[in-house]
Amino acid sequence: MYEPIKIHISHDEARAELKKRWNNAELKSAIEKELGENFMPQFAERPRGVSFRQVITPDNGLPLFFQGAKYVGTDPLVLEFHDDMFVSFNEDKKGMGRLRVTLEDGAKATVDIMDFHANEKKKLGECVLKTGENMIDFHYKLMEVSGYDPEIFDNSKWLERFGRATAYYYPFFLHFVAHGVLFENVESYEEGDSGSPMIRDVTTPAIQKIEGKFGIRPLVVRMYPQDQTEEEDFFWWDHPKNVNEYIIEYAKKNDFIIKPC
Question: What's the pTM?
């Protein structure tokens, strides 16, 4: 039966709780035993603050994550999923090819750097831009421009070992019981959206299973504010000034249309 649960905690709560759990050798050993060969080696030597993105890009949310991960006492780690399928109806994936920019006069605009139809249902790692450039290589170039350099790891092989996308949530969340903090918006756990099959049948049971077995929940810090306005949503998709300028110049150089919002 679906039971809404509160999952997000504050940065201060995460910092204090992670320190206590990381120093609990018995708890960490129990988690690692439960995971077995599914334990990610990146979590073995030091606590990690994690952002899970199909492909990293230096939007305005990246500095927020980076600073938050440092604040709670973790080393930032971005886990990617390059083998995931590109589908244009998914706004997060479409956003890799439809970039938000702010113009010199402060107006908001978008730039389509990808032919969405031509890339539909390709693996993300196989997607190309209108220039012929690999899509992931382009976002890595943006990372170089940004100056941010968190550890990045394509976690495709780990994710694919579970077969169905819904099967990895339990082992994934287990990594944030004592070994790290997940920075993510896990919506509807708190709101109790029983109408969502994913929330009801997959993610909530995974967290309840962890709590039933270990008596505690994974450490999850809300990444973005709840109930955002359109203005706030655009900001998180947008980029720091130097990256924003690079994208605008890239668009002009390649004769891409800069479309006002």
Answer: 0.93
